[in-house]
Structures are given as structure tokens and as C-alpha cells.
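B., you asked whether I could sanity-check this one before it goes into the benchmark set. Here's the sequence:
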Amino acid sequence: MVIKSFSVRSAFFLLVLAVLLFGSQNLVAASKKPPRAVYEQLYEVRVTKVVDGDTVDVEFLGEIPPDCDKSCQRIRLIGVDTPEYYKKVRQPYADEAKEYTGRCLGTTMQLRLDWYTSYKDRYGRLLAYLYAEDGSMLNYELVRNGYGRYYSKFKFNKQDMASFGQAEDYAREHRLGLWGLDTGDGGQE
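And here's what the prediction gave me:
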């Protein structure tokens, strides 16, 4: 009887151990970053939809990064947080931020990933920078022109982080965009 009880416990322990090991391998695989080469190239994209100031949908026109859909991939712009754009209630300056980003709709841009940040966020959006034909970075321009705040929740390249902080300081100092609103705190109440 003791041996039978021990065998049931052992089998249960092995089953739990196998589930834990199998599950943890999946977690490691899911959080594993793509190879560094994925981050070192530019991807040509067309902006197909503007969700809000810091989120767009793109279509890849050539090569695509791993785990992405060629025809439609949602992109969360690194380093910037624009006011939320909800259908019924919008944060102050959300319309203007979405309109600014909307100028990219239908245009061809270059997408670049950042090795120092997560590949995707918890919503499955690819975290990236978008560059216009003239080389200007949409993410940075949103901050510098006051359409959004510097956003460091996703840590990214330290040089870029410093320049985004300076861009926000510039927008605040010149009371551009949301920094010119009556609240004086970038629309935050």
C-alpha cells in the first residue's frame, strides 16, 4: 500500500514537473528575441491605417520581420505617447496627434526596430520607429512638435532616449501642441 501511494505521488510529481518544464520552454521561446540582423535592417512599409497618434497599421512592401503579417501589422511607435483617441471620449489633443500621424497615411516609410527594447508589446503590436523619405523620424517629430510626450516605459537605445527627452523639453519650452494647452502640463489633469 505504501509503495502504491508512493507511485501515485511520484507519477503526479513527474506529471506536474513535465507540465512546468514544457510550459516554461514555451514561455522562453515566446519571449526570445529575433536575431540581431532583424534589428539592423530597414523594412519598407506603407501606412494603411492610423489608429491614434502613436499607433498605425502598415503593410510590408518587401521583406518582413519574424512573427509579422505582411498585409497588416499594427505598429506602436517607440519613445512617444500621444493622447488617447477613443470614439466617445478623447484626451485633449488626441485629434491633432492622430491628424499629424495621419499625414503618413498611404505613404511609403522605412520601419526600424530597436535591439534594446521589446520586440512586441503585450497587445502584440510591433515596437518600431518610422522614417519618412526625407529621413525624419515620425516618433521623434511627434514629441518635438508637442503631439505627444516622451515615453520611456519601453526602454530603448540610450542615445534616442536622450534625444526624445530633449525634444519634449523643446516642445514644453516653446509651448507647442499639447504643452500649450491651458493646463500647462501637457493636457494631463
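One thing to flag: The chain is about 35% helix and 20% strand. Otherwise nothing jumped out at me.
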